């Protein structure tokens, strides 16, 4: 049996428009974007980004490849000029130098002058942030310590591995103790120890009061670290979720079954907002936890052989696939 | 402007760390030694053949101009090759993103890089131009007529190519940038010789073609004016040098070339300010 996906996905795409943004005083917003759009020649990269990120929260930005995530981040950082719409970052228009002084940014693939040593790189970035030399003398070794690169402080970047480059990139993004930290795929190229380090840094940045805007493919990481998460697809925010309420509200079923027909699958939609059957694996997002026994009875009564039937809490990944479709690679 | 100076310092250090500066200086010193050796043997030959002092001076003046010509060619190549990758390469690799997201204006990034290269090239040109003139004077007693004017014009040619390379660097890839800049300089070079030939053979249309080429790219005009300023008029008149004074770029053309440097510098800034990184 091939992949039979929920027929309500199309309806869902229509109904899952982003909820109207709650009224938050502008001073409490780290990012406020309204209908931010970017068109590259004949391709719409970002259709109309509208979102608010509150100060002090860790905000996840999720979407499949080509959804416009990186372009959105680049627009907020003034690296890419929006075709239309507007946005404020830390209460100032995008590109404002005062706001930039309080922003840290780790690009997806951190690359810099490979002839610099780790210490020289951090000093240079510190000077570009106008950090006084006496403060840098203390801060540079601290940052190197934080990202675990102290033993390599005098090594040139050309001798760094991919993971080490990502670590030094992380250090330069923190050198100004930013109020707003953009992390674009921060765990790219990192081993499990490095990933743990990123998680710890995000946690400590949140405790310091900084806002973190996290663009990541690793959904499990977003799930652990983020307060809220936005799902973006085809250049638009499809949904913004509070991770606390998300954890409470989602119930699903995972079952291993044989002999399920198209009609039975359609009938399952009465119990669930989405139904996905791939080979023998049946995954459903139930409309309520009390419906699980009724689903089991329905399957058995319709001649479906059930080998395994497990009620589960839906993970972020399930929700991601549910909203954005299983056909999108991550 | 502080950030521009920081970028200038980084650019200069980059040239030193990547050994561009040291290799260029080493090659320059080797060139000067070779030139000195050639000049020394030439003087010995003059002595052996009892060549008169007047003829000797004109011949040395001609050889000196050929030395300056070789230096000018080295400066052209050095300017383009050293700077061709600085903007396009960093845009392509994404390295510029880490700088452009700092509280630094894009014009400061560009101006800083331009200043860094400008400082490095000034040192190189000073070493080569002043070096060859001093050596010639020491070995033969012959020196350029107006060495500082010559230095200034060769320096201006380098700055012109630097600005053009920066401008194309904001539009195209490294390779395209190099091909375009050197291609334009080649056009100017050809135009310059056509203009000379046209003036010598009294062919106004050939002269016009040369002038149009100089308007499109005035780099070669600066070199031809530099020859005019450095070469003795007698050497020119007696054809001791391959550089004819038949058609000398006017001060107006030099003013135009100066404007060209400024224009391309600001066009590069304007383009970098507007483009996506």
How does this structure look, described?
Chain A is of the alpha/beta class and 330 residues long. Chain A has helices spanning 9-15, 69-76, 97-100, 118-128, 133-146, 162-174, 192-208, 219-225, 243-249, 262-268, 292-301, 316-324; strands spanning 29-40, 43-54, 58-62, 84-89, 92-93, 103-106, 180-184, 211-215, 228-233, 236-242, 251-258, 272-278, 281-286, 305-313. In chain A, the strands form three sheets. In chain A, strands 6-7-8-3-9-10 form a six-stranded mixed β-sheet, sandwiched between helices. The radius of gyration of chain A is 23 Å and the shape is elongated. The relative contact order of chain A is 0.16. The radius of gyration of chain B is 20 Å and the shape is globular. The longest helix of chain B has 35 residues, at 106-140. In chain B, 82% of the residues lie in helices and 0% in strands. In chain B, helix 3 (53-83) packs parallel to helix 7 (147-169), helix 6 (106-140) runs antiparallel to helix 7 and helix 8 packs across helix 10 (219-230). By secondary structure, chain B is mainly α. The chains are: A alpha/beta (330), B mainly alpha (277). Chain A binds chain B through residues 74, 77-81, 97-98, 100-101, 103, 105, 107, 109-113, 115, 124-125, 127-130, 169, 172, and chain B through 2-3, 6, 10, 14, 17-18, 93-95, 97-105, 274-277.
CATH architectural name of the largest domain in chain A: 3-Layer(aba) Sandwich
Q: Assign a percent range to the helix content of chain A.
A: 25-40%
Low-confidence spans of chain A: pLDDT under 50, at least 5 residues?
Answer: 1-19
Low-confidence runs of at least 5 consecutive residues of chain B: none
Helix-strand pattern of chain B, N to C? HHHHHHHHHHHH
Output mean pLDDT of chain B. Answer: 91
Number of helix segments of chain A?
A: 12
Question: Gyration radius of chain B, to the nearest Å?
Answer: 20 Å
Strand coverage percent of chain B: under 5%
- Counted beta strands of chain A: 14
CATH top level class name of the largest domain in chain A: Alpha Beta
Largest sheet of chain A: 6 strands, mixed
Mean pLDDT of chain A: 85
End-to-end Cα distance of chain B: 22 Å
Number of strands of chain B: 0
Coarse shape of chain B: globular
- What name does CATH use for the topology of the largest domain in chain A? Rossmann fold
Q: How big a fraction of the residues of chain A is strand?
A: 25-35%
